[in-house]
Amino acid sequence: xxxxxxxxxxxxxxxxxxxxxxxxxxxxxxxxxxxxxxxxxxxxxxxxxxxxxxxxxxxxxxxxxxxxxxxxxxxxxxxxxxxxxxxxxxxxxxxxxxxxxxxxxxxxxxxxxxxxxxxxxxxxxxxxxxxxxxxxxxxxxxxxxxxxxxxxxxxxxxxxxxxxxxxxxxxxxxxxxxxxxxxxxxxxxxxxxxxxxxxxxxxxxxxxxxxxxxxxxxxxxxxxxxxxxxxxxxxxxxxxxxxxxxxxxxxxxxxxxxxxxxxxxxxxxxxxxxxxxxxxxxxxxxxxxxxxxxxxxxxxxxxxxxxxxxxxxxxxxxxxxxxxxxxxxxxxxxxxxxxxxxxxxxxxxxxxxxxxxxxxxxxxxxxxxxxxxxxxxxxxxxx
Length: 383
Prior knowledge:
- The termini are far apart.
- The chain is globular.
- It is α/β, with parallel strands linked by helices.
- It has an eight-stranded parallel β-sheet, with helices on both faces.
- The chain folds into two domains: about 1-50, no CATH class; about 65-380, Arginase, Chain A (3-Layer(aba) Sandwich), CATH 3.40.800.
- It has helices spanning about 10, 15-20, 30-40, 100-110, 150-165, 190-200, 220, 230, 235-245, 265-270, 280-285, 285-300, 330-340, 365-380; strands at about 80-85, 140-145, 180-185, 205-210, 250-255, 275-280, 305-310, 345-350.
- The protein is built from 14 helices and eight strands.
C-alpha cells in the first residue's frame, strides 16, 4: 500500500537502488511535462516595496486600510474626511454590546479601499466613475475616541471633545472648512455629541435619520425623566437635539420607521421636533426612487447630517444590533437609497448600533455597516 515509503534504510544507502526508486527529476518525463512551464519561467518575486502587494490581511486594521492619523491634536495634520470610532453602549434600552461596533465595522471593511463599483449610484450617475478613496481627497482613520464605560456624562463629554478636536483641523481641499467626520458607533446616543460639534461648525442642520425607531421620544415617556443621565439615551437624543437648537426647523426626516410608538402623543411630539417620516413599507408602495426624491426635497436646503442605525436594515441581514425589528430594508435597498442622495451637502455622518456579539459568525452586520460607510464616503467625495 505504501510502496517505496517503507523501503529499508539500507536501500537508500546504495545509489543505484535509490535512483531506481527515486528517478532524477531531470529524467522524469512526467515531472517535466507538469513543471516545465515553471522551469522555463521562474518566479519573479517583488522587490522590497510592499505598497502594491495584497493588503487585505496586512497591517493594523483601519477602515478600508486608510492611513492612521493623530486627529485629536489640532494642527498636527490636515485631512478632508476622518473616520473615528465611538466605543459606547451604556445608554441602550435593550441589548448592550455596541461598544465593540467600531472594530466590527473596520473588520468588515478589509475588502474596501480601491477600485470603481459597477453599481454605485443610479445609471448615468457620477458615482459610477468614482473611487472615493482616490478622488483627490485625503481620508484618514483617527482610531477611537477614549470613552469611559463607567459614567455616561464623562463618556459623552469625551466624545464631544474628540469631535471638536477633529473639527479644529483644516480640510486640505478647502482650508476655510473643517474636515468632515464619519463616526462608527457605538449606540446612537453618540449622535447628539456629533451633532453638537457639527452645529458649531455649520450652524443648524437637517438630519436624515435611518432607523426603525423614531428616537425623538419625550424623556418622560421613555425613561421616566428620573435624572438627566437616564433621560438622555439612544431613544431620546433627537428630542434633545431639537431642544438644544441643533436642528433646522421642520427639515429633518426619519427613514425606515417600523417599531411601535410607546404613547399616544409620540407622533405629535416627533412632528414638533421637526421630523417627517418615511416608514419601512413605503419602499414597497412608492419604490426606491420615490423614497429618495422625498428625502432630497425635504432636506436639500440645509447642510445635512446623516445618521444610520443598523436596525433600519432588516434583522435577517443585520442581526448584530441592540434592538432588532423585523421588516426592514434589504442590503441592496439601503445602499441604493443612499447612493440616490447624490448632490445633497452631507457634512457629517455616523453608522451606529452595530453589536457584534449578536452577529453571525459570517460578520454580516459589520460587513453591511462597512458598505454603508463606503456609500457615505461616495456621497461626500462625488462633488
